Each structure stands twice: as C-alpha cells, then as structure tokens.
Amino acid sequence: MVSKKLTIVNAQGFHMRPASTFATAMGKYGCDVVLKHNGKDVNAKSLMNIIAACIKCGNEVEVVATGPDEEAALAEAVSMIEAGFGE
Amino acid sequence: MLKGIAASEGIGIGKVMIVAEQKLEYVPKEVTDVDAELKRYSDAVDAFCEETMEQADAIRKSTGNKEAEILEGHIAIIRDPFMNGEIENLIKSEQCAEKAVEQVCQMFIDMFSATGDELTMQRATDVKDIRDSLLAILLGIHQVKISDAPANTVLVVKELTPSMTAGIKKENIVGIITETGSQTSHSAILARALEIPAVLSVEGATTKLSTDEQIIVDGSNGEVVTAPSITEIADYTDKRESFLRDKRELENYRGKKTVSASGTEYELFCNIGTPKDATKAMAADGEGVGLFRTEFLFMDRNALPTEDEQFEAYKQASIIMKGAPIIIRTLDIGGDKEIPYLGLEKEENPFMGFRAIRYCLKNRDMFKSQIKAILRASAFGDIRIMFPLITAVEELRAGKELVEEAKSDLRASNIDFDENIQVGVMTETAASGVIAHLLAKEADFFSIGTNDLTGYTMAADRGNGDVAYLYSPFQPSVLMMIKRIIECGTKEGISVGMCGEAAANPMMIPLLISFGLTEFSVSAPSVLKVRKNISKWTQEEADAVTEKVMSMATEKEILDYLKTVV
C-alpha cells in the first residue's frame, strides 16, 4: 500500500470534469485506488462517488493505492491533483 | 407582467414555445431472460451515448467547448463502472431495466442533494436528465426537438436540461423562461454562455403562458411582459439595441490594463463577500480584491469559526485569484447584526457603538485567531490586512501590535507567512479623514469606504427617508474628506484605494483621478464599465472638472454640473 496527502488547488475542486478525467485515469490501473476525505473512503475509479464526496478547493485528501501497480497509480494521481487538473 | 430571477442579461422579443415534460411511465415487469434484459439496457446506453455525442458536437460548434463538456460528462456518468455495476446487479436480480435505471439514479440524486453543496446538488440535475433520456429510449418515446423551433422563439420549460440546451439554435431562440433554477444553476450558466436572455423561477410559466403568444423576456431585470402593447414592443426593441451596443463596446476592455487617457495606470479590484465570489471577480476581469468582507464566516452559525476554517477560506480565495492582491477586512460587526453567540448587547446607537475594530480589540483571542488565519493565507498570495472603523491612531497601533504577536506565534510554530504583509486602514469615519495625515505615517495603505464615510460625515442614515437626502458622496463635505484622505496618503507614499459604491460612479471617477486615487474596488459586474470610464479621462480634463466641482457650494450644483460632463 502506498499513499500521499494532498491539497486540492483548483478553484472548483473535484467537480465534474476533473472527477471524470481522474476516475478514467485511475480506471486504467489494476490496483484499488481510494481517496480518503473527511473520514470517508471514496472509490477513485467512480466519478459518481467522487462527486458525492464533495471535495472542494483547499480540502485535504489522502490518495491510497493498493495492488500490483500501486506506485504508478499514485504517481499519476498526485501529478493530476497537484497540477489542479490543468485548470 | 410575470416576475422571476434575472439569470442572463438582455432582452428577447418573440413567440412562446412550451416544452412540456413527457410522461415517462411504465409498469415494472418481471424479467425472465436476464441476459436479454441486460442487452436491452446496454443497447439503450449505447443509443444514449451516440445521441449525446452528436448533441455535444452540435453544442461545441454553436456555443463552445465548456458547454459540450457538460454533455460529455453525461456519457462519463453513465459509463461510470460503479453506477453501471449497480444497475446491472439490479437487472440480474430480475428487475426490469427501467426500474433498475430509476432506482440507481434516484440513489445518486439523493446522495448529491444531501451534500447541501450547490455545485454537487446541481449534478443531481444531470442525473435526472440522464435518467429521463434513458427511460425515454427504453420506452421508445420520441423526445420533442427544440432544434426544430422557428426563428424568434421564446423557450418556456419547467427546467432547462443540458440535453435540451444542446438542441438550442442561437439564431432561433431569443429568450428562455423556466419554472425553476437560480443565478448559478445549469440553466442560468448555459443561457449566459449562449448569450440568450433568460428569466428563471417564474412560477407556473408553463401553464400561465401558451404556445405562440407574443412575449418579451427582460433577462436584465427578471421580468416577462405578457401581451405587450405596440409601445412596449417599440420600447423594448430600443432597449435591446442599446444593450447589445453597450455590450459589444464593453467587451473591448476585457483583458486590458486599466489606464486613463493620459496613460496613468490604475488597479481595478473587486469587492467580495465569500471565497466563491472570487470566481466571479476573476470572470469579470477584476485585477484583485480590494475588499474581502469576512462577516460571512461568523454569521448563521452557533460558535466562532476556528482559525483553520478561516485560513481555508482566505487561502481558497487566494488560490482562485491566482495570487493577485486581496485586501481582507477584519471582522466588521456590531450590535445591529444578529450573531447570538457573540453575546453583543443591543445598543441605543449601534453605529456609534461597540463594533468593528473596537469590538475586536476587546476580544483579543478571537481577533488574533482571525489575524493568524490571514497571515497563514498570506503564504499563498499577495494578501493584505485592513482594519475597519479606525478613528484614532491608537487603534491602528494596537491592531498592528496584535499582528506582530500573531507573527511571532507563527514563527515559533514554523508556519509560513508573508513577513512583509501590508496592514492598512479602511478610512470610513470622519475622524479618520481628519487625522489622515497621522494615520498615513503608520498605515501601509488606505481604502476609502465611501458608504460609511458619507454616513458618518453627514451624520445621516441613508435608510431613514427623512434624512436620506443628505446622504450623498457628492456633498462638498464628503468630497473634501475624500480629497484629504487621498492627498495625505499620497504625501506619505502609500496607496489609496476606494472600496465603496462611489468608486464605480461615472461622475466620481474624474474627481478620483484628479485627487490621485490609485486603486478602484467595485462589484464584479462594474469592472469593465469602470475600466471604460477611466480610459475616457485625461489628467488635465479631470483636473479641470475637479477644480470647478471643489469651488461649488452645494451638492445640487455639483451634480448638475457633473451630469453635463459625463
């Protein structure tokens, strides 16, 4: 298991477009990817679960990847979140 | 006339087309062949995606990429592995596809609605839209085509869904009326993106209006004129023309610097009340925030906000503004505002009582936590602190002392902040105007709050009809105050801004240019107008106008004269 804590930097937070690109990107990996936010575990491969989690700009999330390709999944997740999803 | 929410500016004159909701009723049936039902479902999803892709392409051409993305989001939603899995599981447990789709969609609609977050709650609308489209496909119901609407159509719907919007041809739809929605709902955002005048939340619009009746939609004032007379049509046609002309002209000022005709550059900032307003400031082309009111953090709750909570809000605003200057005004609160947990006593004369900086300096722990939160946020952008209601130098000194204390606390905890953070005064009392020469030596900047400055200088409450006539920033006394504050600031080499309503008044602008104001802070919708107004004045012309104004004895003379020059 690998994990990293990050702060959401784009203004609108995890809204539709970032949630969608993020879930699609995470869907490529075989490992489980979970976003820990506000004491809840959110399935990072499900756009709908990410949206329901209501993750805003300035919020802290912990990305946790567990499985064979966990390192690669975490690296991509971190670079997407840190880049503010290109917004 | 029908009233609603003004959601997209402009005026549309045309004929009503009502798009009624379709009945998507079905009798749930038991499924015997699960594989066949799964295929029926996946075929419907494929058909939905194909249709939506086509709509997205169409809207991308007519409106833009952002709007197309909303529809592409629908495809992402329906392709969501978790959501799909849930629907398929229900079908496998022998539920029909319609029921499965409806149940799972409802689950997400409830989940999104329960968050209480506006943006997330709006996604519930998307899920409803998807649910209806999928049900229509499964039930073989043909949906009404908005794309067939003739020229000069005013679209009247319960709620404007993204898939409906996709059918809108800009050249044919001249107005939109809905029964639900707010300034920030999808309908409003889409209408604004399409630049179609829209009035939302018009109660019973789809039943009160009838197809083909002539109607006027005034999206600037949130009004719908039914059965308009010939004169009304002529009036609104003129209004429409001038609206379109002004709009084209103002757009020329977007992305430009704020410069007078003599080439002097000014800062043009926005006033905001929440971090979310910062998004509006950015969209309006504001160059920073000249007044960030912090009362929202303290109102409508049962206890003081924590330092972290405040820090998050200030930081969020700074990130949204991409590090541009933000002047944060410390808590401006008094006995006239309902904040039960602060235990403020009702006062006989709250505007002259225990409020703003006076209250904060007596409640040091609360004040220090706000200052620490602001300092911590200053690590993320150009953040400045402003104290409201200063009337004496001691208050500024006491406030600055607390800032220093907060700094050393943070240093001791190894927390980053801007060591050179500017601390300024909101000059909004007669006293601060008179001692502006003293304050200017110890403050890093001034920002003139003309609303209170006018009230305190004239000793007149603008809410009181009997004395409201005295309440005007064009009173010679108030103009003298403004002039004095700017000149004292300039003499000490500090920047002087104005964050009151007067900063956006075209008649005030030449005076402010002549006095030497360096920063204008206005509401987001005024940004481009103010930039345009500033660009019209040369220093010489502004000086000449101001010299005349300052020699006049009455407000009436001044206004009569200024009306002739702007």
Describe this structure in words.
- The complex is a heterodimer of chains A (87) and B (566).
- Chain A has helices at 16-27, 47-53, 70-82; strands at 2-7, 32-37, 40-43, 60-66.
- By secondary structure, chain A is of the alpha+beta class.
- Chain A has one domain (2-86): 2-Layer Sandwich (Histidine-containing Protein, Chain: A).
- In chain A, strand 2 and strand 3 (40-43) form a beta hairpin.
- In chain A, helix 1 packs across helix 2 (47-53).
- The N and C termini of chain A lie far apart (29 Å).
- Chain B is an alpha/beta fold and 566 residues long.
- Chain B is built from 22 helices and 17 strands.
- In chain B, strands 1-8-7-3-4-5-6-2 form an eight-stranded mixed beta sheet.
- In chain B, helix 11 (307-320) links the parallel strand 11 and strand 12 (326-329).
- In chain B, helix 10 (275-283) packs parallel to helix 11, helix 11 runs parallel beside helix 13 (364-377) and helix 13 (364-377) crosses helix 14.
- The model of chain B has no long low-confidence stretch (mean pLDDT 92).
- Classes of the chains: A alpha+beta (87), B alpha/beta (566).
- At the A-B interface, helix 1 and helix 2 of A face helix 2, helix 3, helix 4, helix 5 and helix 10 of B.
Q: What is the CATH C level class of chain A, in words?
A: Alpha Beta
Mean pLDDT of chain A, rounded to whole units?
90
CATH topology of chain A: Histidine-containing Protein, Chain: A
The CATH architecture of the largest domain in chain B comes to: Alpha-Beta Barrel
Number of strands of chain B: 17
Largest sheet of chain A: 4 strands, antiparallel
The number of distinct helices of chain A, counting runs of at least 4 residues, comes to 3
Q: For the largest interface in this structure, which chains are involved and how many residues does each contribute?
A: A-B, 24 and 28 residues
Per CATH, the superfamily of the largest domain in chain B is Phosphoenolpyruvate-binding domains
Q: Radius of gyration of chain A from the CA trace?
A: 11 Å
What's the total helix number of chain B? 22
